[in-house]
Sequence to fold (130 residues):
Amino acid sequence: MGSIFTSIIDGEIPCHKVWEDDNHLAFLDIRPIQPGHCLVIPKREISYIFDMDETEYSALWSAVRTVEKKLRTATGCQRVVITVVGWEVPHVHVHLIPTDELASFPIPPACDFDAAEFPTLAARISEASE
Fold:
């Protein structure tokens, strides 16, 4: 069974489309953080952004850039914040949120992490295989 985004792509669920090409769709988020909050998705359903092949990954970011320009022009915002969370729906999607100040975007709080662990964690990441 496909994700809710696949149902939107297939026209089974309506959306407020703002842009589309052969491989991507951008539409307004139904639970916006700010007015104009959009989602950009690939039409091919894939769950995790880093599982995309290089060509699809690059094409997605090109689509995101296209929509960002349209969104900034249409809203007059100073910056568009980008997030890729990846847990809400198992279909790659990039959030584009128009903002005029940092307070326009809720940043998650920092975790409780012992600073003495930074060297160990940095070494573990550095030494991990690709």
